[in-house]
Amino acid sequence: MDRLDSMRAFVRVVESGSFSQAARDLNVSQPTVSKQLAALEARLGTPLLSRNSRTLAVTLAGQEYYEATVRILEDIDSIEEKVLAGQSSPSGLVRVTLSPAFGRLYVIPRLRAFQDRFPDVAIDMEVSGRHVDLVEEGIDVAIRIGPLSDSALVARRIGDMRMITLASASYLALHGKPETLDDLRSHQRIGYVHKGSVVGWEFTAHGRRITLDGGGAFRTNDAEHVRGAVLAGLGIAHHASWLFPDVLASGEVVRILDDHAPPPLPIFAITASGRRMPSRVRHFIDFLADICAEEAELRITE
Length: 302
Prior knowledge:
Layout: H1 3-16, H2 19-26, H3 30-44, E1 49-51, E2 56-58, H4 60-85, E3 92-98, H5 100-117, E4 121-127, H6 134-137, E5 141-145, E6 153-161, E7 163-168, H7 169-175, E8 189-194, E9 197-198, E10 201-205, E11 208-212, E12 218-220, H8 223-231, E13 236-240, H9 245-250, E14 253-256, E15 265-272, H10 279-294
Parallel strand pairs: 3-4, 3-5, 8-12, 8-13
Antiparallel strand pairs: 1-2, 5-15, 6-15, 7-13, 7-14, 8-9, 10-11
Helix pairs in contact: 1-2, 1-3, 1-4, 2-3, 5-10
């Protein structure tokens, strides 16, 4: 059996934790993957995986071989890609996951330009607010906001998200404009729900971070419903500025308590580590970074 194919099969088994998933990823049968791994272990004279009917673990030798193999495969793929770059344009499928509002407001309107430049690249967009497992679900790129804790991810910072407090001009004319953080407690608040809980409102005051209860008479887990609720005069919201640039410019919505705004949160395009990044994925991440760079409310400020 081809040694490189066996090495690729081993890497996919380690990263997916499953022979069957590795077979699906590589578009081969599960027995083929099993034979490739057996041949690899026979050639090396040592077990790389410890497996039984319920568990699959990497041995010490397997971990060392995995780390070296990833580097070797990345070098080979990089060289091949450089050679092919002058012969053909990027092609294939890019699977991306992002939030509904960001996709509809910023990505979809510009996607035609990307497709005109790379006509052989197809985009499969999963619109979701949840954090997916990139390897398990076969996702190439995910957009995530805020500090990252998973070291198994490769992250590129593409923008910043600024949290602002705001309300419609009609709401403020009727209920008054809050001048202090304490004033917020007497106002209707539009709550944003994430993972089943209402997200607290973070502010800065006297050099320290303060979090207020984000609950209110109206709560939703959808960013565009937060926007709709603000425009309907249902109350005050604390949300991403990129959701409101047009109505802020027109004066229909008014920013308040800017002196207490928290620092911006980084926006990352993430991919799984240990994978070769195809040129089509790299170009799509460049495309996302360009979107953020062009928008004042998404641009990196630090």
